[in-house]
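Fill in residues.
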C-alpha cells in the first residue's frame, strides 16, 4: 500500500509544494501548483520522468513531467476555437497545464486535484466545467484518471490528452512496441497505414521528431537500451484512440502520449467530446516503469 508524504520543490526563484505517494521502491510526486501534473516517478531513486528545471520554474508552458491537455490537444487552426459564432484564442494544448490546481484530498490511497473556471479560462473558453485529476500508486504502476464534468447550462466541447516526458538516454537507443492503425507526421488528410514496427527517427533539418497515431491499441511500450528503462502506457481504448510520439533535438526525453483528439478537433463536428449539462466523463490510463 502506498504512503503519502509532503515536500517542497525549491530552486532558484521557484517554490512549489509537492505531494508524493511511495510504495516500496517506487515514488510518484505531484505538484498541484504547476498545472496539477506529475513531476517525478522513480524506482529505487532513479528518475523515469524528465524535468527541465529552467522551464519548470518559469511561468512558461511546462515541457516536462506529465502535463494535462484540456480543452484541446495541440493548437487549433489559426490559434482559435469557434464557439457561438465568435473566435476564442487558444494556445497549444489548452490551459489546464498552465494553472494551479486545488487539492481536494490527499491520503495514502490517492491524491485528487480539481480545476474550475476563472477569469482567464472564461476569456478563452466560455464554459463552466470542473476537472478532477486522481493519482494513485500501486507498486510500479501509477494510475492517472481525469474526470471532466459539465457544470454549465450549455453543451461542453473539448478534447483531452496527456503529454508525458520520459527520460531517455538518446533517441537512437529507444524503440517501441506499439500496435496502431495509422502513423504519420501530419494529422491533416488521409492517414497512411502504420508500419509493422513504428519508429521515431530524427528528421534532417527539423527541430523535433513526431509520429501521430490513430487506432492505437493498449498498451504502448517504450524500451531504452541505453538506460535499461521500460515504460508501459496502458489506457482505456474507448476514450483514447490516438497516440503521439515526440522528441526534441538535444534533449534527453521521449514523449509517448495518449490523446483523444487532434489539433483542430474542437472546431470539427463529430471529432471531439461533447458533454450535456450535468454529465461527466472519465479518462483513465496508467504508467508502469521497469
Amino acid at each position: 500500500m502506498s504512503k503519502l508524504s509532503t515536500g517542497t520543490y525549491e530552486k532558484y526563484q521557484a517554490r512549489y509544494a509537492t505531494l508524493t505517494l511511495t510504495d516500496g521502491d517506487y515514488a510518484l510526486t505531484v505538484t498541484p501548483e504547476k498545472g496539477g501534473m506529475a513531476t517525478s516517478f522513480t524506482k529505487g531513486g532513479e528518475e523515469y520522468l524528465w524535468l527541465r528545471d529552467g522551464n519548470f520554474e518559469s511561468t512558461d508552458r511546462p515541457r516536462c513531467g506529465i502535463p494535462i491537455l484540456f480543452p484541446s490537444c495541440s493548437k487549433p487552426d489559426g490559434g482559435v476555437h469557434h464557439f457561438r459564432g465568435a473566435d476564442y484564442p487558444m494556445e497549444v494544448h489548452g490551459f489546464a497545464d498552465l494553472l494551479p490546481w486545488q487539492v481536494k484530498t490527499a491520503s495514502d490511497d490517492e491524491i485528487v486535484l480539481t480545476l474550475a473556471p476563472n477569469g482567464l479560462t472564461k476569456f478563452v473558453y466560455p464554459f463552466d466545467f470542473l476537472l478532477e485529476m486522481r493519482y494513485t500508486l500501486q507498486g510500479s504502476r501509477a494510475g492517472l484518471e481525469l474526470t471532466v464534468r459539465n457544470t454549465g447550462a450549455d453543451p461542453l466541447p473539448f478534447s483531452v490528452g496527456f503529454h508525458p516526458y520520459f527520460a531517455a538516454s538518446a533517441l537512437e537507443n529507444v524503440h517501441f512496441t506499439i500496435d496502431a492503425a495509422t502513423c504519420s507526421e501530419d494529422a491533416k488528410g488521409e492517414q497512411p497505414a502504420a508500419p509493422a514496427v513504428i519508429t521515431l527517427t530524427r528528421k534532417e533539418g527539423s527541430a523535433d521528431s513526431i509520429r501521430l497515431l490513430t487506432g492505437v491499441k493498449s498498451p504502448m511500450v517504450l524500451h531504452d537500451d541505453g538506460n535499461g528503462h521500460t515504460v508501459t502506457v496502458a489506457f482505456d481504448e474507448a476514450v483514447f484512440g490516438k497516440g503521439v510520439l515526440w522528441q526534441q533535438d538535444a534533449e534527453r526525453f521521449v514523449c509517448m502520449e495518449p490523446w483523444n483528439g487532434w489539433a483542430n478537433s474542437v472546431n470539427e463536428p463529430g471529432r471531439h467530446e461533447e458533454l450535456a449539462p450535468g454529465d461527466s466523463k472519465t479518462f483513465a490510463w496508467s504508467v508502469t516503469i521497469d
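The first strand starts at residue 3 and ends at 11.
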